[in-house]
């Protein structure tokens, strides 16, 4: 029996890239799929179109699957509720939510505008909350459900020029953990994937210097479909005991990412003054400081 037989999945941002590959993989695994995509540009600006979503739907149907297209935006509460309603209207239930929709407005921090900040937060973080919250009512009523959220090593580790994106993606990790804690008693699970792939979301990475060009060539080898098997597994009943975790998928590698825990401590029974902190606490803690590195410096080896 297919791993997602009888399930209904919502995949946001499924008109291309990672979202499309996840939608296709879930359909092949037996799920009926709501293909959500507004069909906008990478920045979220300009004209919208149903064409990307319709293309994904057509591929699913050509392979014998079932899908409907939804073009509502995740970044609005009422619109997000319509996304979930489209699953109920078309297929009678919802079992899986994949929060994948995203935009980029990269800008160095001291030049980032409030509009650039809000636009990215609205789609990634607020959108993940809105769609998840709308589905939660159904998950609770049926005592089952699975969330798969797309985070990023830009948030987990760091990157240049992405304060808005990084903050949103790390916020999604906290959102996922909170969902996992709050909805565990209803049989609902919530996990994150930090995907590695060359797609529209990464095509804006600079490739001007030889080092940058080499990095881009490495990324191009990591195609979007490499992330889909992990998403299918986490959405399936075979992952029924996995919740609140953060994974990364990098070509043929799967990583379990650490989450924040105390690394070192310093204690003084009489308490601390600023001077004593400088003299004793910081020297004791310094060896545990995290470096100011970026995702590419932590994942420095070639993908296998």
Explain this structure.
With 304 residues, the chain is α/β, with parallel strands linked by helices. The protein has a single domain (8-259), classed as Rossmann fold (3-Layer(aba) Sandwich), CATH 3.40.50.720. The chain is 42% helix and 13% strand. It is built from ten helices and eight strands. Strand 4, helix 4 (114-142) and strand 5 form a beta-alpha-beta unit. Helix 1 (17-28) runs parallel beside helix 2 (51-62) and helix 4 (114-142) packs parallel to helix 6 (163-183). The two termini are 31 Å apart. InterPro entries: KR_dom, NAD(P)-bd_dom_sf, Peroxisomal_Beta-Oxidation, Sc_DH/Rdtase_CS, SDR_fam. Pfam families: adh_short (PF00106). This is SDR family oxidoreductase.
Mean of residue pLDDT values: 93
Summarize the helix and strand pattern as letters: EHEHEHEHEHHEHHEEHH
Quaternary structure = single chain
- Regions with pLDDT < 50 over 5+ consecutive residues? none
Protein name: SDR family oxidoreductase
Family: Belongs to the short-chain dehydrogenases/reductases (SDR) family.
Organism: Teichococcus oryzae
Domain Ketoreductase: 7-204
């Amino acid at each position: 029996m297919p791993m997602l037989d009888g399930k209904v999945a919502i995949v946001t941002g499924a008109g291309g890239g990672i979202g499309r590959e996840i939608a296709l993989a879930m359909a092949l695994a037996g799920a009926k799929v709501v293909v959500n995509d507004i069909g906008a540009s990478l920045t979220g600006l300009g004209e919208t179109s149903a064409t990307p979503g319709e293309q994904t739907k057509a591929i699913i149907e050509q392979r014998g699957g079932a899908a409907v297209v939804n073009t509502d935006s995740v970044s609005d509460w009422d619109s997000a509720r319509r996304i979930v309603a489209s699953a109920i209207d078309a297929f009678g239930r919802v079992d899986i939510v994949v929060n994948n929709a995203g935009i980029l407005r990269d800008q160095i921090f001291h030049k980032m505008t409030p509009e650039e900040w809000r636009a990215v937060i609205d789609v990634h973080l607020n959108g993940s909350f809105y769609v998840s919250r709308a589905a939660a009512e159904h998950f609770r009523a049926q005592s089952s459900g699975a969330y798969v959220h797309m985070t990023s090593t830009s948030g987990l580790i760091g990157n240049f020029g992405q304060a808005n994106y990084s903050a949103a993606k790390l916020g999604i990790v906290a959102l996922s953990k909170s969902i996992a804690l709050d909805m565990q008693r209803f049989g609902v699970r919530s996990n994150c994937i930090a995907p590695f792939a060359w797609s529209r979301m990464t095509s804006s990475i600079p490739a001007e210097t030889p080092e940058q060009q080499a990095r881009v060539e490495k990324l191009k080898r990591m195609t979007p479909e490499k992330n889909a098997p992990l998403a299918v597994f986490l959405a399936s009943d075979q992952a029924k005991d996995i919740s609140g975790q953060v994974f990364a998928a990098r070509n043929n590698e799967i990583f379990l990412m650490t989450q924040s825990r105390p690394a070192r401590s310093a204690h003084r029974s009489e308490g601390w003054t600023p001077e004593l902190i400088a003299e004793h606490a910081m020297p004791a803690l310094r060896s545990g400081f995290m470096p100011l590195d970026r995702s590419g410096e932590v994942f420095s080896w070639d993908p296998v």
